[in-house]
Amino acid sequence: MYKPAAELLLHESVSLFDRFGDDLILYRDQYGFTKCDADLRIRWETACAYVPFTWYFEPEGHRVFIVFNETSTFGLLDLEDGRLQYMKRPALFSDAWFSNLYYWQGEEIFMYSAETDVVRYCFETEQGTFSDYAEAPLFGRLIERGYDPEFAFERLIAPATIISYDMIQTRYVIWDAMTEAENVIPFSEYEEYLLVDRHQNLFSITDATRFYLYEEDKLKFKFDGCQSSVLLKTVLLDGAAQRLAIVSTSSNFGTTWLQIFQKT
């Protein structure tokens, strides 16, 4: 069982929420970015002029690259101090609808969009060019796996882990592009809106009312039937499943709860 260990009530919606080392990073709608520690103490808050569409965390680094809904602007957020740098979005892919597939390489990032295919963007020059698999072969393998017609792409965990769902064999498949290794999680209750997370040997599945926790391919914990709030996302905070971060919202009001649950 799990019991609440910390809680933070926010008076706005949260549309982005993820783990960064031992901390949590979130985007509060019409407010900005916030960094909390694992006990939900706020470390910094940064206002933001635009609404983010998606973000790409630097593997083993301290930055996150942000694609805004604003078509002329990108962002680079320093996760150590909260400094946000706005960057020019090149006009040649201003209308691109970037996917959640990306590959970070030094001061450049490769991104994928159905409209533009592979593009490369340089942080230092704020210039972008069209690219191809030859310039980033690992990214090419991630794209091919992510859009493999045999699977439903669910999530990229940087730098090179793809989580997909196999409709035929009713299972999640966790695939490492570097080693070609696969791990599977049997799961027959799949819906397109489920959100997944992986941390070391742990795997979680969340929807509006349910939460499943697996260790390897064994179900360790299941919560089914949230009455008072809508679950938005679950983030695993350690590899032993001792602590979980859950973000939820009211079905009637625009408030968000961040809660840390600790195993008893």
Side-by-side strand order of the widest sheet: 1-24-23-22
Broad shape: globular
Question: Which percent range describes the beta-strand content?
Answer: over 45%
Number of helices: 1
Low-confidence parts? none
- The averaged pLDDT comes out at 92
Rg calc: 18 Å
Helical/strand content category: mainly beta
Number of strands: 24
Order of helices and strands: EEEEEEEEEEEEEHEEEEEEEEEEE
Please state the oligomeric state of the protein chains shown.
single chain
| Helix content class | under 10%
Describe the structure concisely:
The protein has 264 residues and is mostly beta strands. It has one helix spanning 137-146, and strands spanning 2-10, 14-20, 23-28, 32-36, 42-47, 52-57, 63-68, 73-78, 84-88, 98-105, 108-113, 117-122, 127-130, 151-157, 161-166, 171-176, 182-186, 195-199, 202-206, 210-215, 218-224, 230-236, 243-249, 256-263.
Structural write-up:
The chain is mainly beta. Helices cover 4% and strands 56% of the residues. The protein contains 1 helix and 24 strands. The protein has one helix at residues 137-146, and strands spanning 2-10, 14-20, 23-28, 32-36, 42-47, 52-57, 63-68, 73-78, 84-88, 98-105, 108-113, 117-122, 127-130, 151-157, 161-166, 171-176, 182-186, 195-199, 202-206, 210-215, 218-224, 230-236, 243-249, 256-263. The N and C termini lie close together (6 Å).
